[in-house]
Amino acid sequence: MTAAAVQTDGVVPVPAGVSVSVRVPASSANLGAGFDCLGIALGLFDEVDVTVVDSGVEVSVTGEGAGQVPLDERHLVVRAINRGLAAVGASVPGLKVECRNVIPHSRGLGSSASAAVAGLAAAAGLLAKSGVAPALSDAQLVQLAGEFEGHPDNAAASALGGAVVSWTDTSHEGDIYGARRVEVHPTIGAYAFVSAVESSTNETRGLLPDTVPRADAVFNVSRASLAVVALQSDPSLLMMATDDRLHQPYRAPAMMPSAELVARLRADDVPAMISGAGPTVLAITDRELPDWAVGTAGELGFSVLALDVAGPVEVS
Fold first, then answer.
1. How far apart (Å, rounded) are the C-alpha atoms in residues 307 and 195?
2. CATH 3.30.70.890 in the chain, residue ranges
3. Are 302 and 279 in contact (CB under 8 A)?
4. pLDDT tens across 191-211, in order?
5. How far is Cα 53 from Cα 60, in angstroms, rounded to an integer?
6. For the chain, where do the domains classified as CATH 3.30.230.10 start and end?
7. Strands (E), the chain
8. Which residue among 51, 209, 283, 293 has its CA within the 20 to 30 Å range from the CA of 315?
9. Rounded-to-integer distance, Cα 16 and Cα 283, Å
10. 199 or 130, which is more confident?
């Protein structure tokens, strides 16, 4: 019996044969000024089918990540399923997990957060269908996914949909992660300029200084606050609201094509920013891209996706 199938005294098993399907959106974090606290769900989806089986763990992956991720209990979706079940005193004897991935990996579009949310949402679905324990709430999804990620911005966006304001409360023995959804103005959409190369969040985070000038901190607080207004009710403010002094200037030397594309887009009044830790560039706007944008992006090594703002993770 594999590690995923181990049961302990007092743990209620979900019976074999229960199955769920999950559709989870990509996400982008920071949105310029809102470092580690703002995020948005994007209309690019991974799909996961989960079935409880009598024993063992079987994982299949097609699309992004195929041939690069473990196909056993170490797979992030499997770990998230087990963590979600354990949170309410449940378990499974075994799992069959089929992943159809579209979200690019290591590009700043929240692929790992989406996988964690997919697994936790699948756990919630298995609980709801089997009735062996209460299903996970949205708050639990955000908390548990935040534990996998170490911060809740991407995960909260994929879990709740729309845009999110997230936070971490470190005053307790363990970090408490929270988030609230922000309804996005219906005219706002997104363009993802997806880089052909990958980036490591840990490496790019390591480029950030431990302290920043007070003026820069005040600048970003004002712009992040303004972003909530821009996203909800006044898209004309998006250019100003997505300006940033805390992280993108320090990361630019590690992703010069991304920094160059952001600069060119913003020079033409397109609210563009690095998506998460990059190297993907994201534009959030209520306008069409300028005629030159797609061609120039291609020359710099980016493909362009026009995306809607997505709703929350779906379970059926």
1. 16
2. 189-307
3. no
4. 999 998 887 666 666 788 889
5. 15
6. 3-181+311-315
7. 12-13, 19-29, 38-52, 56-63, 90-91, 94-101, 163-169, 176-182, 189-195, 272-274, 281-285, 302-307, 314-315
8. 283
9. 45
10. 130
